[in-house]
Design goal:
The protein is about 50% helix and about 5% strand.
Length: about 475
C-alpha cells in the first residue's frame, strides 16, 4: 500500500483538511509535526510563550483525536527538509502533503523541500489562494473593498465542500521514533486548545452573537466577538468552515440588522484573507512600510515611554487596561488593538514595528500577516490604511466602547473606585476627589505620559516630513 506523509503545520484539525484529505487519497498516512528551530528562532516567534503553550496544547489534542482513529502524531525536531527526508526513508513514503502557507519563511522552507522531495501543497490556510483573487488585468489588489468584491464574486463555499474527518487512520509503524509533545509552559485558560473547542465556539457564536456582531464587536466591556482568532492561527478551525457558517447565518437571520451583522463577520474573515494575500505578494511589508512615502518618518527614540506602554502605565486608562489584558491573557480585543496602536504610533511617535514585535511576542493569536496588516493600517503606512492624520482619542474611544468603565476596572484595579464620570480621564478629578476614591494621580496611578494637546502637531509634522522627502525630485 502506498504511504504518504501529512506534514502538519497550521492545520491542527481533522475536519475540512485538504492536505489530510489528499494524503488519505494517496494511501496510508503518517502524520508528522516538526519542531523547527529555524521558525522558533525568527524574530516573530522568539518569545511568544502564550502562543507556544496554545500550540503544544493543540498538538496534544490532535494526537488524542488521531489515537481515537487508530493513528498517532509523530513529532520530530530539526530542519524540516532533513526531518522529512529521514521520515520518508523510514516509512517508504512516496508523497508528502501540506497546506500552503504564505509567510516569507514558510515559502522559502517549502521551496527547499519541494526541490528535494515530492511535496504537494494544498489550499486550506485561506479560502482563496493568492492566484485566485486578481485584478481583471492581472496583479494583486492592494485596496480592501475591490478585493472583497472580487473575493465575493467567486463561487461561495458550501457545506458540501467541507471535507469530513476520516473515521479511521492506520497507525504509523510502531518502530517510528517520536519525541514527546512538549508540555505547555502554561495552559491558556482563556483559550482551551483543540479542534473540538474551536467548533464549539463557532457553533455558539453563529447561533447567537453573530446577529449582534455589527455593534457588539466594538464593545470592550462585552463578549461581542467570536474569540476564534487563536484557532484560525493554528488551523484548529478551517477558514472555509467559518465562511460557510457565516453565509448560513446570514441566510437564516431574522432581520436586516442581523443579516448585516453576519455579513460584517464575513467581512472580517475576508480581511484576514486580504492580509494573507498582501503578505504573499508583498513580503517586504514585514520589514518596512507598504507606502513608500512613509518609510522615512523620524520616529522618536523613547525607551521609557515604550516600556510604560508595554506595562500599561501610560496614565490613559483604556490604553493601560488593554495592555494589561494582553500581558495577563495573551489576547486583546480588536478595538483595543487599534486604540493602543494609535497611541504608540500617533501619540508617542514610536515606530509601529516596535509595537508589532511586542504583539508577536505576547499574542496567543499572533499571525505575521494579520498583525502586520493591523499595525500598518493604524499607522497609516499600509495598504488601504487609515489616513495618516487620523489619531484615535483614547478618552473618547473608551467613553464610547466602555461607557461604564467595566473593562478598565477589570484590568486596572487602581481605578476601581473612580466614579464613572472620571473613569476615562481620572486626572481631571480634583485632589479631594482623588483622595476620596483612593486614587491619587501620580501616586496610585500614573499621570498621563504625554499631553495630547501637543502630539497631533508633532505627528503630522513627522509624517509630512517623510512624504516631502519622498516626493522631492
Amino acid at each position: 500500500m502506498a504511504v504518504s506523509i501529512w506534514w502538519v503545520r497550521r492545520d491542527l484539525r481533522l475536519s475540512d483538511n485538504p492536505a489530510l484529505h489528499a494524503a488519505c487519497a494517496h494511501g496510508a498516512v503518517v502524520p508528522v509535526f516538526i519542531l523547527d528551530p529555524g521558525a522558533d528562532g525568527s524574530r516573530y516567534h522568539r518569545d511568544a510563550e502564550a502562543r507556544r503553550a496554545f500550540l503544544y496544547g493543540g498538538l496534544q489534542a490532535l494526537d488524542a483525536d488521531l489515537r481515537r482513529r487508530g493513528s498517532r502524531l509523530i513529532v520530530r525536531r530539526g530542519r524540516p527538509l532533513d526531518a522529512l527526508r529521514r521520515l520518508a526513508a523510514e516509512t517508504g513514503a512516496s508523497a508528502l502533503f501540506a497546506e500552503e502557507d504564505f509567510s516569507p519563511y514558510a515559502r522559502r522552507r517549502d521551496a527547499a523541500v519541494q526541490r528535494a522531495l515530492p511535496l504537494t501543497l494544498t489550499g486550506g490556510v485561506a479560502v482563496r489562494r493568492p492566484a485566485e483573487v486578481q485584478k481583471a488585468g492581472g496583479g494583486p489588489y492592494t485596496v480592501f473593498t475591490p478585493f472583497s468584491r472580487a473575493w465575493r464574486a467567486l463561487r461561495p463555499p458550501t457545506e458540501g465542500d467541507l471535507l469530513p474527518a476520516p473515521a479511521h487512520l492506520p497507525s504509523p509503524p510502531t518502530e517510528l521514533d517520536s519525541l514527546p509533545i512538549p508540555a505547555p509552559p502554561a495552559r491558556p485558560a482563556l483559550f482551551p486548545p483543540g479542534e473540538a473547542e474551536a467548533r464549539r465556539r463557532l457553533e455558539r457564536f453563529v447561533s447567537d452573537r453573530i446577529f449582534a456582531y455589527g455593534e457588539g464587536r466594538n464593545q470592550l466591556d462585552a463578549e461581542g466577538t467570536s474569540a476564534l482568532s487563536p484557532y484560525f492561527r493554528f488551523g484548529m478551525l478551517s477558514a472555509r468552515t467559518a465562511v460557510v457558517a457565516a453565509l448560513k447565518a446570514g441566510r437564516s437571520a431574522g432581520s436586516a440588522y442581523a443579516r448585516q451583522s453576519a455579513d460584517a463577520w464575513l467581512s472580517e474573515l475576508i480581511w484576514r484573507e486580504f492580509y494573507l494575500h498582501i503578505l504573499y505578494h508583498f513580503p517586504d511589508v514585514l520589514k518596512t512600510a507598504f507606502q513608500p512615502g512613509l518609510r522615512r518618518i523620524p520616529w522618536r527614540d523613547a525607551p521609557d515611554e515604550l516600556e510604560a506602554w508595554k506595562a500599561g502605565r501610560t496614565g490613559y486608562p483604556v490604553v493601560d487596561a488593554a495592555m494589561r489584558q494582553l500581558a495577563e491573557t495573551g489576547w486583546m480585543h480588536n478595538r483595543a488593538r487599534m486604540i493602543v496602536a494609535s497611541f504608540l504610533v500617533k501619540d508617542l511617535l514610536i515606530d509601529w514595528r516596535q509595537g508589532e514585535q511586542h504583539f508577536m511576542d505576547r499574542l496567543v493569536d499572533g499571525d505575521p500577516a494579520a498583525n502586520n496588516g493591523g499595525w500598518q493600517w493604524t499607522a497609516g503606512t499600509g495598504t488601504d490604511a487609515a489616513p495618516y492624520f487620523r489619531i484615535f482619542n483614547p478618552v473618547l474611544q473608551s467613553a464610547k466602547f466602555d461607557p461604564q468603565g467595566r473593562f478598565i476596572r477589570r484590568f486596572v484595579p487602581e481605578l476601581a473606585r473612580v466614579p464613572d464620570r472620571f473613569i476615562h480621564a481620572p486626572w481631571t478629578m480634583s485632589p479631594l476627589e482623588q483622595r476620596a476614591c483612593g486614587c491619587v494621580i501620580g501616586q496610585d496611578y500614573p499621570a498621563p505620559i504625554v499631553d495630547r494637546e501637543v502630539v497631533k502637531a508633532r505627528t503630522l509634522a513627522a509624517y509630512k516630513q517623510s512624504k516631502a522627502g519622498h516626493d522631492a525630485p
